[in-house]
Amino acid sequence: MSSGKELDKKVDRFDQRLEEMGIRIKDANQFKVREDVFDDVTLLALYKLVHKKWISVIGGSISTGKEANVFYGERDGAGIAIKIYRIRTANFTTMSSYIVGDRRFSGVKKVKKELIFAWTKKEFSNLVRARDAGVAVPEPLVWDRNILIMSFIGEGDVPYPQLRNVELESPEETYSQILTIIETLYKKAELVHADLSEFNILYGDKPYIIDMGQSVTRDHPRALPFLMRDIRNINRFFRSRCDVRSDVGIFNAITGLDTAEP
Fold first, then answer.
1. In a domain, 33, yes or no
2. From the candidates 102, 144, 211, 247, which is the catalytic residue?
């Protein structure tokens, strides 16, 4: 563990290096460099992305999740989201359970750093597949090591709110839109989100799906249980807001299976 003085030196070096690259820190008082986020590996990846002109402004924190931090940024005046997976504190066991069984990453070594790099690449790949299928997701721009850069979903530098914090004008319409998204992901993108809930759906003019690092391909051995869990989460959220269809009915309509009602 670095001492406070060592961390201060690291922050100073970080700020100095950004200045040398011509990078502006937006709202410096909100931009807090955390040792568990901006470790040496992350700084190296960040420098590389800056050097390739993917980042021109770094701003404050948008969100802090279980495995990653997301910061606002800009590229030539356009808003971007900079997602940084924490190498030191990310949950290795949880992440591993979503990688194992994904044929795209069968050769990944079970070493924490390598797993997190694979996870970042996995989220980029999943976003590409979802976007190509017509699902509203952040536009994946580039990834390097444990950093993923995406288009910013929001207005100005304020992200759209999570679905759980929105007073919906038409819950029925939004519910139907999200069920269509789940079906489109499964049938066209051949993906299951695997952690879908009111926490990782942003709502602006429509629902936007985020946090797709854990999403699995349709042939993953746990894809169907994950799909059922996604459906149950969405039904749980909307049950008090509008009429919902049965979990199993939705599941059968999406998969073409004939699962019996419990």
1. yes
2. 211
